[in-house]
Write a structure and sequence with these properties.
Elements: E1 5-16, E2 19-30, E3 34-38, H1 45-51, E4 62-70, E5 73-74, H2 82-88, E6 89-92, H3 103-113, H4 119-132, H5 136-139, H6 152-164, E7 170-174, H7 182-195, E8 200-204, H8 208-214, E9 217-222, E10 225-231, H9 232-237, H10 242-248
Parallel strand pairs: 3-8, 3-9, 6-7, 7-8
Antiparallel strand pairs: 1-2, 1-4, 4-5, 9-10
Helix pairs in contact: 3-4, 3-6, 4-6, 6-7
Membrane topology: Peripheral membrane protein
GO biological process, one term: phosphate ion transmembrane transport
GO molecular function: ATP binding; ATP hydrolysis activity; phosphate transmembrane transporter activity
Amino acid sequence: MENAPIITAQNLNLWYGDFKALKNISMDVGEREITALIGPSGCGKSTFLKTLNRMNDLVPGVRIEGDVRLRGQDIFAREMQPTELRRRVGMVFQKANPFPMSIYDNITYGPKLHGVRNKAELDELVERSLRGAALWNEVKDRLKKSALGLSGGQQQRLCIARALAVQPEVLLMDEPTSALDPGSTMKVEELMSELKENYTVVIVTHNMQQAARISDKTAFFLLGELVEAGPTAQIFSTPQDKRTEDYISGRFG
């Protein structure tokens, strides 16, 4: 049984200047599922991901047509404030980007921006977010130390904790493990599987095995088009499109 969609995109087209990066994309993202976006470099998967919380609005010369809804609300509507959208749809980037401040301040940065001032509440948020990112036991004795002193894998989990601190509904991850060693990658993958109990996760990955291991649904992008999307097991075992089959089997590009 499929989970009800939390995000729906219909007939989404996006241009960077004259270049059409997304061509008529229509797909749903199921709630409390992990959806993996796969495809070769430059195929539109990161562009699609960044449309979901309007990060592309920050790119000069971008033009977007079509419809994207979060729980039925038009994300491009005038009353949808980008800051509120980005609180509800958080983002974790390819390269861990902790702020040059303490671990504690990294996590409370967002909640303070949204008006949380009570120290007891902030303390609880820090612990809950770090536990949610499977990092609490490793850093609980050094919360006041710089986040830049953490290892790469810890920094990436800190960025996940920072995204969780504002209590988002959806977490977007743009190749979150591509800069990590196998051990850290495994920890982040385990964490993603735990996160879907409470959050919806959309991940861009170049790693076929990773998509097969952790995602419930997989969408294959090619040259700005969505070739096919469906349950991961089906996409990997009996893809409907020859291009998907070629890509997954490594005969491609």
